[in-house]
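User: Batch of two.

Assistant: Item 1 of 2:
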Amino acid sequence: MGDSSTAPLLSVRNLSKRFPVGKSFFGKPKKWVHAVNNVSFDIMPGETFALVGESGCGKSTTSRLINRLITPDEGEIIFDGRDIARISEKEMRPLRAEMQMVFQDPYGSLSPRMRVQDIIGEPLLVHTNMSAGERLKRVHELLEVVGLSAAHGERYPHEFSGGQRQRIGIARALSVNPKLIMADEPVSALDVSIQAQVLNLLRDVQEEYNLTYLFISHDLAVVEMISDRIAVMYLGSIMEVAPNEELYGNPQHPYTQALLSAVPVPDPEVEKKHVLIEGDLPSPTNIPSGCPFHTRCPLATERCSREVPQPKEVAPGHFVSCHFPGKDI
């Protein structure tokens, strides 16, 4: 759990990113995809902060901005007290050891031509001065930590199951003792039984290594199991941020209510109200004026189409960007 008395490990302030689409006769972009719009949040040391939302809402782009795989157009990314939003690649390189990624595809993120021990040891080769023997010893320790054996280091990725490959990806992320791990849909490609094993592993290593997680997922059932706080994204903007139990027990934004209504309940005796959001997701090249959700919101009024709602704190640590927070749809 994060400690509210300490400074955030990561602060994102008014982060925005757009991408050009097509070119005119004179070489200028015809349109812009507004992927991330004025996003702000803090992540405290030791907590798991989740970004959730539909596919295309901008959550993965946000993680790539934080890791500086792409450069933001506007905003600040303050990591461990330093604004890294516009530092050079040379300045960013040593910081990459402190900000590691676990990717969605546990096979595509591992080189098929490298042995597992070389895959896990590669960050050590780049970021440390360890000898070959020291690196191999560290790799063997990490394989044991993630539930594999030292003998597995001699094998290649294709010799493992999806769950085992994701364990290898986690071991690689742990190798350089990062402060922050960004896990982008880390269990979505796995069977449900394996998902639980990998989530339990992530929680175990978080406690053992004092890690902070940015956990990205579209699956609210998975997020409920692992997160401390949750931010709900829609069309590049954050709609609601709240502690785990507060969000699931008292959703204030109509979009959050609709998402939670779609989560299946494994008890046939429990009746659940399902909320259907009508209409298609607007194009990110043409973001609606006012509240981004107003074109699909059953509560929307003319004010919603004119005014962008500002975040309101409706309970301790619970912020919602809506003109009518708490009203059931």
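Item 2 of 2:
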Amino acid sequence: MRAKYAIVLLVVITLVGSSCAYAHHSFAATYYIDRTQTIEGNIVEFLYRNPHSYIKVEAPDDKGQKQVWAIEWAGGAQLAEEHVSRDTLKPGDHVIVSGNPARDAASHRIRIQNINRPSDGWKWSGVVR
């Protein structure tokens, strides 16, 4: 009888743990997944890390005021599989970024879909998981 309770407890713990992991990836809670926004500016910082990398880009908002935008990207391990390294982007690089805007417009965040560096034609396009 104890083994039966232990199995039930293990199943419950597994289900609760897996739902928490899935909830972490609910981008719809933070971003408008049905909208796209494009910004153009210069990279201030590239944070190449797990679970998500970020590019900070200084670019104007819809009122023309310079803002530092936090661009959410995939983690370092996933980016490495796509031949993106911590040296791919540098502060000062001029980029054009498109992606899903944050639900809170004041946060100046975007979930990346595309990035283009016009100076040499480098591009990335994909899905952040």
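The mean pLDDT is 86.
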